[in-house]
Amino acid sequence: MKNHPEQQQQQQRMEGEAAAKRSRLDHQRGLSDGSSFHMEDLPEEIQPLVLSLLSLKEVARTSLVSRNWRKLWTRYPNLCFDGSKDGPTDMDSVKIERAKFVETVNSIIQHHSGIGLNKFSVRFSLGMDSSDILNRWICFATASKAKIIAMNLSPKGNYLEPSKQVHYFPLEALGAQDGPFIQCLFLTNVSIKPHSDICGFTKLKSLHLHCIQIIGDLSGLLLNCSSLEDLEVIACSGVTDLNIPHQLNKLRHLLISNMRIQMVEFHVPNLSHFGYKGSVIPVVLHGCSKLQKATLTYHRTWSEEGNNKVLGHVFHGIPSVSAVKVLHVHANTYTDQPLWSSQAHSSITRPASMFLNLRHLTYEIIIFTKLANRHSGILQLAQYLSFVPQLETLEMHMLYHVSVGRCWRGDGISCHMRRHDHLKTVYMSGFRCYRAQVELLCGILEMGTVLEDVTIEPVVTIPWGLESMNFVSIPRDEICEWAHRTSQRFGKAITVAKRPPPR
């Protein structure tokens, strides 16, 4: 007996719905057991991107999900080994931890495929008898053509003295493979022997040398770094001058810190950020017309003359930074002479270049003196502001360490200053109504024609780690009273920032 056509259509519809339901169930089961997704079927260039979103431990766990995924972790792109620990430990435990760390690293690199390795880093204090171990790790990183290599062999931050023996990092190994591959090299507490014949650095974009024992020609090495964009040289030994005669056309960021050198000279036409920390020395940056920000931190100077020297050096000694838009200066000054210096009111020599592009100036100063109201060093800044005609924001942080201090009562005084037609914002922390502070701010109020926001803060808002010092405090009500009188005098509001709550 034949089925009616309507019955046949209904039966076909029911069979189709049942098939669709089975398909959905199969798809859900597939998602639950992972059988519908095969990571190994993805293109090789995509697999490292997916794996990089997970930690090495998480990737190792995925090997338990499926038989097909057991070797997936062997292509993990970022191998970062951190065995650093804070606090003292006894020698026996150090040896045990070191053995475990070395065993772990050796096991992982032994089973890793080396394919698609992006980063290889080690943070651990190896013994001086571990040269073979370190060389094995470096050989793995170079054979795998890791783009980023970072070695920190003193992760507790203990800077090694130049006379101490340190591990040697073979720069030659980075050029032993076919074609350059290294893009970022970060080295801490190792020894290097740079020279101009070392190859393999034409793709290097970032080079950080922290507490490095340099034996050789650093300038020769940089000659081969045609793609270098970021360079940091911090607390390194073996270098007396950083004189780089050739152009680093792509360098954007340059930091020189805590180096015992006599001069700095670079040819950097496209430099945008420059940082220097150290003694007052000649700094020459040729052609850096695109400089956006400069941070200059000078070591302690003694006497009023030393303070004036620091301020003058910023405007006279480094003419190449005159194109900067944001300038941050930090200086420590010491004086044993409790005399109000007439030098603060004398004329200063005009800098070779005007700071025509400077919009934001931050000035941090630590002042050690016996009598706060007789220290006039910061008044030098008033005259140097004459060479910053486009300045819009002035930020000052003044940390006084004094024996005697009190709120200055001479409200009628103000330092000599040229007119400022663009200065809109002034912020001063550590403002305690000392004489030089009062004169400087009154001069700014008098000559700042477009001032919109003037804020003073009795507490220094930048931590300098000097909490143990015996600072002389000024009652807040006296500062508020002075601010009220001065606001009425100049017709411009002065905000006294509230004291932050105790932590």
Strand order of the largest sheet: 1-2-3-5-7-9-11-13-15-16-17-18-19-20-21
Strand content: 15-25%
Please summarize the sheet with the most strands.
Answer: 15 strands, parallel
The proportion of residues forming helix, as a percent range, comes to: 25-40%
The general outline is extended
Roughly what is the average pLDDT, rounded to an integer? Answer: 80
DSSP E strands, number: 21
- How many angstroms does the end-to-end distance come to? 91 Å
Number of helical segments with 4 or more residues: 10
Radius of gyration: 32 Å
**Classification by helices and strands:** alpha/beta
Task: Note the quaternary state here.
Answer: single chain
Low-confidence stretches: 302-307, 337-345
Task: Summarize this structure as a short list of keywords or feature phrases.
single chain, 503 residues, alpha/beta, 15-stranded parallel sheet, three-stranded parallel sheet, 10 helices, 21 strands, 23% strand, extended
Report on this structure.
- With 503 residues, the protein is α/β, with parallel strands linked by helices.
- 26% of the residues lie in helices and 23% in strands.
- The protein contains ten helices and 21 strands.
- Strands 1-2-3-5-7-9-11-13-15-16-17-18-19-20-21 form a 15-stranded parallel β-sheet. It has a three-stranded parallel β-sheet with strand order 4-6-8, with no helix packed on it.
Architecture blueprint of SSEs:
Layout: H1 5-33, H2 47-51, H3 56-62, E1 78-82, H4 91-111, E2 119-123, H5 131-143, E3 148-152, E4 167-168, E5 184-188, E6 190-192, E7 206-210, E8 213-214, H6 218-223, E9 230-234, E10 242-247, E11 253-257, E12 264-267, E13 273-278, E14 283-286, E15 293-302, H7 303-317, E16 326-334, E17 360-371, H8 380-384, E18 393-404, E19 425-429, H9 435-447, E20 453-457, H10 476-490, E21 495-496
Parallel strand pairs: 1-2, 2-3, 3-5, 4-6, 5-7, 6-8, 7-9, 9-11, 10-12, 11-13, 12-14, 13-15, 15-16, 16-17, 17-18, 18-19, 19-20, 20-21
